[in-house]
């Protein structure tokens, strides 16, 4: 096997190399017997003069610190880069998938109920939209399943996978009976909608919460300061400074070129690593505040709008009774959330918004929700007065002021806003990744330069004792 | 030679990176995900209609014959005349008759899915009353209500009357007044598919039997050896029967016949477990309206309208007559 042979020939070479370097050090230490006995104890106690032993120790400490700074710095850059990848690919994709599962399911429910409300055989548009929603929910569920890393999240995915086919089965039953003009179809639709509200959407909510937490955690980790690397770097700089001050006091030379070069290299490591991680953290934070956090708020608003639309339809489909009152209460709850100008998701999104292009979209969304609420009040009044047909017409109307048109407009506006926040999230995450470009190699090389400089500088002083 | 070396180096670098990532970042998904997703214990449970009570919560009152003949109503004393200050005059002033109906019970009170119009025997009777008051059968504001909302809606004045497959009995007479009997139903039992057709509830010992919450039927099921399951709407019983989450439905043949018309697999018993006289519920304070409605019902029985409504077929060709057999209107009994 060629690979095996290669591996075997590799090993002796590297061990020989390391063998040579280990031999070097004893040779240097071998110089110490020249010095008077007791000197070793002396410089261990810190009372030594510029003995080669003391300098050798300093060199070893500096070598270790420079190496440690380099390794910690490179590890930080590599780890941070992985985390940023995690923000954009893993957690970010999961977060988007979880939101889309929730949105698609809500939209499927709203669409199925609207289609029923129209009576008879549903329109091809509504049928297509429902099919698209179910397909999209399934795809996003598979995406979420591949990226979820918490037990609760995985359980939520399992629950959604188990209940989604049950839901679609009930909808098909409802559809078949409805097409035959049999009232039991409406009972199947109520059961399906109940399953959606009681089991599927809570599971989707849990998945979304988990995905959001996972993303926030990754964002937090990606935006932390590189403490370990900074500690090593500062320590290295401190020892370098001490060594140079000490040397300049003990010898008549003000500067040691090697040590000075090493110091400059380490200052550059500090600067590069600091600036790169500071910039990356800034982009990550911006991607969160104006990106993913904004998406969460806007998605909450969009889901509230879809749920309200579903509730509006089911109130009419439930054909009275207690359940109709429950569905109406659900509409009022969702609409209050949308119109809440203090703590509602739309209000919060507006408060957090810094993008001037988004402001008119958010304003328009709020105005559309208000107009829809007024239309809803009118159609509820119609239904209360027994003018059921009129109420249904208004609910399904795609004319100006019709509930179907307004709810669709609101959904489109919110989708647009979510898209724009998503763009910001992606561009900031990619900017964060870009700010780290070259930092790994740069920090590593500079640490090696520092090591070489310090070693060279001290080697010269040690040589003076030979 | 060099390529495998590089590959080795690259893979070892990758291994190192993974090790670093795993060590530093416990949150990363890449690090050995050995999670087995679990379903909660109730995940295997089949879907149920919203608001199902399993087991059913039961209405308190059972047999109460303190009022004697529960079908006895107030005799019409003033015919179809609407006196000033009467309840009918008030309704006329309101412009609409507010009626509580069912929108889910096939052939009695239901919304035809193809037209979205309310249809059925109960609805037709209500339209005849509106025709008598306004000369226009469409002057009705329908309120779709569930079985257990019938009494409170009449008591609270939400509706002027309830025409909704409502059995007259002495317990209900304490809360509402009834018109004379306008339909005679019988409690029977429906089973599904391969299930043996049963004639008594005792044969369903330990089995799950469905009826609507707050109905007289649910009480009878609870008094037997069967397990009662209550649902908000009658059609929810049909859904559960089709889904196999109940073994049988026991209620009025008028409702069961509607189920059998929607699904051939629904098999009905033939023995009447009890007589279920249907009356129109009106507030105890509106005796004049009760008498007026009784005068209207007298007309419907006499002039052939009742028989015509009983025989009226829907788009699918189903009528009460085709499903329940020929019948004549029940005779009015007055106190």
From TrEMBL, chain B:
Name assigned to this protein: Polar amino acid transport system substrate-binding protein
Any one GO cellular component localisation term in the record: extracellular region
Family, per entry: Belongs to the bacterial solute-binding protein 3 family.
Signal peptide start and end residues: 1-29
PANTHER family reported in the protein's UniProt record: ABC TRANSPORTER GLUTAMINE-BINDING PROTEIN GLNH (PTHR30085:SF6), AMINO ACID ABC TRANSPORTER PERMEASE (PTHR30085)
One GO-annotated biological process of the protein: amino acid transport
Domain (Solute-binding protein family 3/N-terminal): residue spans on this chain: 96-317
Segments of this protein annotated with the region Disordered: 40-70
Superkingdom, natural source: Bacteria
């Amino acid at each position: 096997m060629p690979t095996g042979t290669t591996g075997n020939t590799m090993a002796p070479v590297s061990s020989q190399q390391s063998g040579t370097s280990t031999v070097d050090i004893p040779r240097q230490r071998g110089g110490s017997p020249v010095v008077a006995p007791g000197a070793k104890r002396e410089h261990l106690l810190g009372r030594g003069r510029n003995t080669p032993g003391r300098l050798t120790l300093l060199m070893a400490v500096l070598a270790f610190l420079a190496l440690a700074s380099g390794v910690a710095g490179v590890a930080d850059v590599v780890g941070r880069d992985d985390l940023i990848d995690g923000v954009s690919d893993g957690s970010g994709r999961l977060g988007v998938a979880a939101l889309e599962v929730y949105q698609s399911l809500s939209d499927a429910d709203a669409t199925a109920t609207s289609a029923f409300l129209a009576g008879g055989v549903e329109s091809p548009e509504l049928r297509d939209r429902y099919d698209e929603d179910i397909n999209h929910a399934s795809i996003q569920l598979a995406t979420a399943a591949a990226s979820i890393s918490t037990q609760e999240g995985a359980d939520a995915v399992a629950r959604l996978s188990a209940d989604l086919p049950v839901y679609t089965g009930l909808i098909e039953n409802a559809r078949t009976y409805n097409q035959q003009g049999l009232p039991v179809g409406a009972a199947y639709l109520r059961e399906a909608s109940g399953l959606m509200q009681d089991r599927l959407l809570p599971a989707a909510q849990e998945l979304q919460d988990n995905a959001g937490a996972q993303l926030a955690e990754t964002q937090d980790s990606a935006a932390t300061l590189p403490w370990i690397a900074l500690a090593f770097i500062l320590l290295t700089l401190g020892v370098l400074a001490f060594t140079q001050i000490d040397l300049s006091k003990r010898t008549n030379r003000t500067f040691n070129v090697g040590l000075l070069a090493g110091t400059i290299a380490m200052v550059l490591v500090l600067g590069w690593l600091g600036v790169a991680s500071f910039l990356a953290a800034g982009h990550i934070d911006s991607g969160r505040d104006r990106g993913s956090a904004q998406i969460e708020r806007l998605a909450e608003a969009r889901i509230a709008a879809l749920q309200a639309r579903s509730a509006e339809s089911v109130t009419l489909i439930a054909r009275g009774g207690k359940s109709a009152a429950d569905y109406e209460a659900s509409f009022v709850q969702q609409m209050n959330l949308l119109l809440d100008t203090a703590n509602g998701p739309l209000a919060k999104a507006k408060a957090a918004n810094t993008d001037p292009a988004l402001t008119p979209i958010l304003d328009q969304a709020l105005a559309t929700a208000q107009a829809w609420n007024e239309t809803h009040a009118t159609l509820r009044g119609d239904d209360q007065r027994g003018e059921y047909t009129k109420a249904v017409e208004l609910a399904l109307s795609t004319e100006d002021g019709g509930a179907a048109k307004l709810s669709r407009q609101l959904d489109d506006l919110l989708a647009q806003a979510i898209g724009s926040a998503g763009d910001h999230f992606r561009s900031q995450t990619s900017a964060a990744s870009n700010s780290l470009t070259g930092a790994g190699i740069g920090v590593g090389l500079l640490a090696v330069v520092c090591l070489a400089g310090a070693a060279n500088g001290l080697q010269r002083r040690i040589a003076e004792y030979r | 030679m060099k390529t495998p070396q590089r590959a080795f180096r690259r893979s070892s670098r990758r291994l190192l990176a993974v090790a670093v990532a795993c060590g530093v970042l416990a949150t990363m998904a890449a690090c050995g995900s050995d999670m087995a997703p679990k379903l909660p214990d109730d995940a295997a449970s089949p879907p149920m209609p919203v608001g199902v009570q399993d087991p059913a919560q039961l209405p308190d009152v059972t047999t109460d014959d303190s009022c004697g003949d529960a079908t006895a109503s107030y005799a019409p004393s003033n015919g179809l005349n609407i006196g000033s200050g009467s309840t009918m005059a008030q309704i006329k002033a309101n412009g609409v008759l507010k009626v509580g109906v069912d929108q889910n019970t096939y052939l009695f009170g239901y919304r035809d899915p193809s037209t979205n119009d309310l249809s059925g025997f109960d609805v037709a009777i209500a339209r005849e009353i509106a025709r008598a008051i306004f000369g226009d059968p469409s002057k009705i504001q329908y309120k779709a209500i569930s079985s257990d909302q019938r009494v409170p809606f009449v008591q609270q004045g939400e509706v002027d009357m309830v025409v909704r497959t409502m059995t007259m009995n002495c317990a209900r007479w304490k809360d509402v007044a009834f018109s004379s009997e306008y339909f005679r139903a019988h409690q029977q039992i429906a089973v599904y598919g391969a299930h043996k057709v049963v004639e008594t509830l005792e044969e369903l010992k330990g089995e799950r039997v469905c009826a609507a919450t707050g109905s007289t039927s649910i009480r009878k099921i609870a008094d037997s050896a069967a397990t009662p399951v209550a649902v908000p709407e009658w059609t929810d019983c049909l859904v559960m029967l089709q889904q196999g989450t109940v073994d049988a439905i026991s209620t009025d043949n008028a409702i069961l016949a509607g189920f059998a018309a929607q699904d051939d697999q629904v098999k009905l018993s033939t023995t009447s477990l009890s007589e279920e006289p249907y009356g129109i519920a009106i507030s105890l304070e509106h005796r004049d309206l009760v008498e007026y409605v009784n005068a209207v019902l007298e007309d419907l029985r006499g002039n052939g309208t009742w028989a015509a409504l009983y025989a009226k077929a829907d788009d699918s060709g189903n009528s009460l007559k085709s499903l329940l057999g020929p019948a004549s209107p029940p005779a009015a009994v007055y106190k």
